[in-house]
Amino acid sequence: MSDDGDAPALSSHALAALQEFYSESGARTGPDRFTVGEVEEDWRMSQFWYSDETATRLAEELVREAGEGGRVACVCAPSVYQKLKQGSVLGSDRVAAVVLEFDRRFAAYGDDFVFYDYNEPLALDAPRSFDVVLADPPYLSEECLSKVSQTVKHLSKGKVLLCTGAVMEKLAGALLGVQVCGFLPQHNRNLSNDFRCFVNYPSRLLDAATPPRA
Ligand SMILES: C[S@@+](CC[C@H](N)C(=O)[O-])C[C@H]1O[C@@H](n2cnc3c(N)ncnc32)[C@H](O)[C@@H]1O
Fold it and tell me: How far is the CA of 20 from the centre of ligand 1 (A)?
């Protein structure tokens, strides 16, 4: 997928140069070989990666809910996209996935990468009608969640899995009709914020227990 009209697109030469940079810097490239752990968190972009257990659990959920031949969109959640591509999640090869991201380091994912800035929630060069949309907005603000929710509704056929702070529960319910899950997402670094998953469908995550911390 290419970028939207407002955002400068990477030419094939630029993409090749980017991939070469990652190769030379020791990071691995390509959808099946690039691991999020190797992309350092940049706190200026509010990047906090899930623990491996949480990324796996969320990827399993997407595969189960998308079904055979289903399509999933990971909005601001590159580590779950990556988990789907690693081949360690049963059935992940039977779903199609895209990642919507602001950080162009993830352009290394090729056609699965869609440039996304939540400030322009509908300026997307992405197909629609995804069976499941997972979103993890970068900021805990009403403005950010409202704009990301516009994107989610634009992309979604129905099922929505939202990961954000517990403090956003009421607004998330009003915007997306989601309810909070028992499952507690965890991150590689401990966050000071109380974090939760929310769904708008009868998910196994609703009553699920928290995975043990690695
Ligand atoms: C809280 S992190 C979620 C990452 C997720 N926990 C994971 O492990 O994949 C928020 C994500 O939003 C992205 N982001 C930052 N600024 C953004 C913007 N203006 N528009 C869209 N996404 C943005 C970051 O690059 C980051 O991947």
Answer: 24
Report the predicted TM-score, pTM, of the whole model to 2 decimal places: 0.84
**180 falls within a domain:** yes
Q: How far is the CA of 37 from the centre of ligand 1 (A)?
A: 14
Q: Establish if 64 belongs to a structural domain.
A: yes
Tally Cβ neighbours within 10 Å of residue 171: 15
Q: Ligand 1: which of 80, 81, 98, 102 to mutate, judged by most atoms within 8 Å of the beta carbon?
A: 102
Domain count, the chain: 1
Spatial contact of 142 and 184, defined as CB atoms under 8 Å apart: no
HSE on the CB side for 117, CA within 13 Å?
A: 10
Among 35, 42, 44, 46, say which to mutate for ligand 1: greatest number of ligand atoms within 8 Å of CB. Answer: 46
Is residue 7 assigned to a domain? no
- Structural domain including 87 reads 12-199
Tens-level pLDDT at each residue, the chain (214 residues):
333 333 334 444 444 444 444 443 334 444 444 455 578 888 889 999 999 999 999 999 999 999 999 999 999 999 999 999 998 999 999 999 999 999 999 999 999 999 999 999 999 987 889 999 999 999 999 999 999 999 999 999 999 999 999 999 999 999 999 999 999 999 998 777 799 999 999 999 888 766 545 4
CATH code at position 134 = 3.40.50.150
Is 206 domain-assigned? no
